[in-house]
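Help wanted!
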Amino acid sequence: MKPTDIAAPDYFHKVVDCQWACPAHTPVPEYIRLIAQGRYSDAYMINWKSNVFPGILGRTCDRPCEPACRRGRVEETPVAICRLKRVAADFKDDIKHRLPHPTAKNGKRVAFVGGGPASLTVARDLAPLGYHCTVFDGDPQAGGMMRTQIPKFRLPNSVIDEETGYILDLGVDFKGGHRIESMKALLAEKYDAIFVGSGAPRGRELDIPGRKEAASHVHIGIDWLSSVSFGHTDKIGKRVIVLGGGNTAMDCCRTARRLGGEDVKVVVRSGFEEMKASPWEKEDALHEDIPILNFLVPVSFVHDNGKLTGITFQKVKAEYDAKGRRNLVPSGEPDQTIECDDVLVAVGQENAFPWIEQDCGIEFDKWHMPKVDPKTFVSTNPKVFFGGDAAFGPKNIIWAVAQGHDAALSIHKLLSGEDITERPLPEVHVSSQKMGIHEWSYDNDISNDKRYKVPHRDKVIALKDIRTEVELGYDVKLALGEAERCLNCDVQTVFSTSLCIECDACVDICPMDCITFTDNGEEDDLRHRLKAPSPHPDQDLYVSSDLKTGRVMVKDEDVCLHCGLCAERCPTGAWDMQKYLINMTHAGSKCPTKSRSAA
Amino acid sequence: MTYIAKPKFHHPGLKKNELGYTHRDYEGKISTLCAGCGHDSITASIIEACYELSIEPHRVAKISGIGCSSKTPDYFLGNSHGFNTVHGRMPSVLTGANLANRDLIYLGVSGDGDSASIGFGQFAHSIRRGVNMTYIVENNGVYGLTKGQFSATADRGSKSKKGVTNTDNAIDLVAIALQLGATFVARSFSGDKTQLVPLIAAAIGHKGASFIDVISPCIAFNNHAGSTKSFDYVREHNDAVNRLDVLVGRDPIAVDYAPGTVQMVEQHDGSRIALRKIDADYDPHDRLGAQTFLARHAAKGQIVTGLLYVDPDAEDLHAHLDTVETPLNTLEADTLCPGSAALDKFNASLR
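Answered by r_m:
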């Protein structure tokens, strides 16, 4: 193999599994260390800069970081990254003075369609640069789906108010209750740029017999949640069936439990394991005595002269074809009818752009989605940008944020007269953490603690009031314990070939058998000659150039604990622990400097 | 010195030996030696050898004297018996322990100061008697604990860190061990575990006095230009006569050796040593030949490593003394004391 180019910004970035997996690339270990030090406001600001909604995401994020977390490969469970983010939000001091101040306007006007996470991220990035940002939303308050679709027992209004407020206070003009009905009309208002962050607002229908007849007791999940959120709906029948296996279905069933649903069931087509809902959301539903029935395909709504009485399901089983694709085929058992008073349909969301006229210069593909550049988020109309669910269909908040940052950068470049396809590289800082002979600026003593559970409110109390938050969040002590579980993967093991005397000290001390000195070879061959098995080829091998004996140092990054013992036991300083900090390029970021060269 | 304990986590894919242990289970406390010390590599090699042999840790007694090397038993086999003796007295304590309980595996760990100076006589007599043990000298040629004076194994003409030339002749412990009748003699280098680990494994399997001299560079005081025990010097002058693999149990013998290059040696414990010749003329069963080979190569400044001599049919001290198979320390009074009738009879026979 060729020697690893650690100066490439991506190399060490990939080692920080959580940050690499996060769409917004939040520097996770950095803020977790700050939490451990009790510097909650600092931890919050790192999050705020990167993911804009730390308090909201700390309660609701889909956590792509956690399955990626190295700790999950070392022991059973990853670090509770998401809930630590909430800790930063819960325990911070007043941070208002640390936010950017509204600056003198630069005369450029940007309109936003929809006031959800994508639009607000773009506005957050552009407003401090002097852009006049006008956000239009059909709802009276900002937040979009965060406010309308996520139940209050998971995400209280106060948190949404606070974090959307930070953005609107930057001088963003929010036009609530003002739904954009025509793109043409908006274009006619001569904004310098338009950002469409209108989400995926339409719940997918379930067109099976009886749907029309039983309509008064069959509700579309996201619309129903939204109606509950605004207080228009405050009760539901005693027996409720929720159709669908995603996170919306989990929100629906738990909401139903709080509005009078005593016998609430979730019914899914697939198997329990393949459900789209996050495991922890399924867990929360089960905890609230909501059974999840699987391998049942709804066939028809059963009704008695228009009054819904139940749903008939066909029983299916999973079969896998030669390519490993799953097919649900009838199991041959008789159909099953489950009685109920109300049905909530949460089988997916769709985009809908009835308000974009065909002659706006915005082209759509065959799936009726706008043609959007996945890097710059520009549509076929050079002044119109899309982001969030509106751009590439339903995903999670953190994706909307990440796309918002990129779209903001495009808009800023466009309005500065620059080429929007030229994307500046992120800024990278790498610095040694050595403080003394065997002292580091980070806590390298690895905690053996298992993942700490987030305390929940007593179920009886929680189910009584739909606005009572279920999760209480970590207290300071639990947060510290959980923070200590972080392996500091951003503190990198940096190897200097010229200093190495091949004494084997690092090999001998490494608790995870990550390091091997051996003859060079092709990657497949090398992976078979390492000191410990190398089961994850997606995890890089760090290969040195040729050493004095002609061998090379090979480090499998896979399960490195970043404990720094290799560097402590190295007599010549050939190993050093260096903190890698990458600042993603946002609108207004300075040009990358030479410091992006890593070592 | 490292302040934190070595993390308990280990690689999730680590192999386990017959006892269900990983090599991590054979570790001891974290080393307090200087960073990069060759002794730590010998520690790792002992751990690896014991792991590969699936040795139950409680069946091992590790005995050492004084010095950097003699600290190392604290860093391996944390669940074994141990005795840290007075300076240079490891061999006599080991001999005594071995006589009392012949069932344990005895690891004598010593250094060049401990064995070639203050304990030179003890070393000689334990070898001479054929105590069943694995005697490892971690040989760095200096007194590291007292800041780098030459030890008795430092080569004449080699330079200290401060530039002083050694004018004394060196003791070659391997040559002495051969002369005193050790039945397993080897030399290796801490920087070459592929050679060292099987040597230790083979030595543990040998019944009789096994002696391994391991050149182990002292990073702090003897790893400079002019030293003959530095990483660079040993790598440049290493003349390996053979390499070996230790085959335990019924594992099929690897057949990737060219015919005629491998010599199989059966050991008392049932293990077999597959010896791959590097130097075609070298015969590890010829004690005299080994002595002259060593002397000739030493004169050329070469460090001969490998399995230098082995007598697979060796006998140990217990065989010489014709002791019972049962460890002496488990013999109860009723076995040891034949009773007054037997005593009377014995006394009468002398009258």
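OP: Thanks! One thing I noticed: The first strand of chain A starts at residue 109 and ends at 113.
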